[in-house]
Automatic annotation (TrEMBL):
Originating organism: Nocardioides luteus
Residue ranges occupied by any AB hydrolase-1 domain in the UniProt entry: 28-253
Alphabetically ordered keywords of this record: Hydrolase
Recorded GO MF terms: hydrolase activity
Pfam families: Abhydrolase_6
InterPro entries given in the database record: AB_hydrolase_1, AB_hydrolase_fold
UniProt protein name: Alpha/beta hydrolase
């Protein structure tokens, strides 16, 4: 499936977001998380065959979408997602990854959503211990340091993993750019509350966890906080994968999402 067009959606605070659309007709709407953008999910979209279309939200703070804005919070993200639905129509399902998974579930706390699929949605407080160092890096515009912090102190990856990323100048430049809204996003997450109604207006909820993260901090333990709030959700394990399945195994993730199409 190839991208057919990109749509610009005005938001309620004079910013904007863009949506990359693959295929045609009501299908799957994807909401990426932090350190990710619509382009980073293109390989997953191209691997999928069971959905009539795949639309990928490029959240604010990512080119060519607009700025975060001075009053940025998770409320901003939920309102942006609602604005996208008003513009493109109701999809058959909303898929969110990590921070995007929480955004999708929060939307489904407030309005009917037919089907929510969330890959390792993070809970409020995730990454909060790194906020002081991220704030310093943000104040200095030191995006190299921001990338190091999110990989080492938030995600728990090794120093060798970071150096491998740094060895690819193009990939590292992309990560630097994606880290610019990172401090504001994790600060917003630290200030958020999970409502008792989380996901309550979703007709169906499917949760996905990478098998490598089962019962492991930080992603598996954060996932478990969300899972406990959603006792009726179906839980699926993606074999041999962790949090970055869209990078490491886009075809495998695409196949799993294809299997979650509901009539």
């Amino acid at each position: 499936m190839e991208r057919t067009f990109q749509k610009l959606v005005p938001t309620r605070d004079d910013s904007w977001v863009t949506v990359d659309v693959y295929g045609d007709g009501p299908g799957l709407l994807m909401v990426p998380g932090v350190m990710s953008d619509a382009g980073g999910w293109r390989h997953v979209a191209r691997a999928m065959t069971a959905w009539p279309s795949v639309s990928i939200l490029n959240r604010r703070g990512r080119t060519p979408s607009g700025p975060l804005g001075d009053d940025y919070s998770l409320r901003t993200e939920v309102d942006d997602l609602a604005a996208v639905l008003e513009q493109i129509g109701e999809p058959r399902a909303i898929f969110g990854w990590s921070y995007g998974g929480l955004i999708a579930l929060l939307l489904a706390s407030e309005r009917p959503v037919g089907h929510v699929i969330a890959y390792e949605p993070v809970a409020p407080g995730f990454g909060a211990a790194a906020l002081p160092s991220l704030r310093t890096a943000d104040d200095l515009g030191d995006w190299d340091r921001s990338v190091e912090i999110v990989n080492r102190d938030v995600s728990g990856f090794s120093a060798e993993h970071v150096e491998l990323l740094r060895s690819d100048p193009v990939a590292w430049a992309t990560l630097r750019q994606l880290s610019e809204p990172l401090y504001a996003e994790l600060r917003a997450l630290s200030q958020a509350d999970i409502p008792g109604s989380l996901g309550s207006h979703a007709g169906l909820v499917d949760l996905i966890i990478g098998e490598d993260n089962l019962d492991r901090a930080p992603y598996g333990t954060s996932f478990e906080q969300i899972r406990r709030r959603l006792p009726d959700a179906d839980v699926h394990r993606l074999p041999g994968q962790g949090h970055l399945a869209h990078v490491d195994a886009p075809a495998a993730l695409g196949r799993m999402l294809d299997l979650l199409v509901r009539s």
